[in-house]
Amino acid sequence: MRIIFMGTPEFAVPTLAALHDAAHEIVAVYTQPPRPAGRGKKLQPSPVQREAEIRHLDVFSPVSLKSQEEQEKFAALDADLAVVAAYGLILPQAILDAPKRGCLNVHASLLPRWRGAAPVQRAILAGDPLTGITLMQMEAGLDTGPMLATARVQIEDKTAGELTAELAEIGAQLMVGTLTELE
To answer: What is the pTM of this model?
Structure first.
């Protein structure tokens, strides 16, 4: 399956790696542009960009996907599917519609609870006993669309970092398994 991967933080890296290791054809990786970091405020690539470069994958980091030019570049990749994991931009309808089978999102909560940013931190702060991963077909709304798969995880006394890392690994395996079922 020809896949465009879209993600930025460390949470997204296991999904990119799992898709690549499962021999899916990753035709492009979209990630946020490098950002200033550290004392010297040097531009640093995202964790996803670093992983993509290690794997010799083509990386695109547009500031926005709203322009017709960016949307045409995306559509020209002729992907079967886009997989999105914490990309950081809301996708315009033209992007959602470009892949033949649409866009699937890996979200770190049991939707509809904790839509949007920082779902792990919000679940911990709310005292939720469990959280999880949701895979969904993307629509124009924020973390809306038909749910394809979920996996639950006990929060217990885990830190946000520990829980995020655990959810990232679970989400990666859930995505690979779901794509196998869809093929």
So the answer is: 0.95
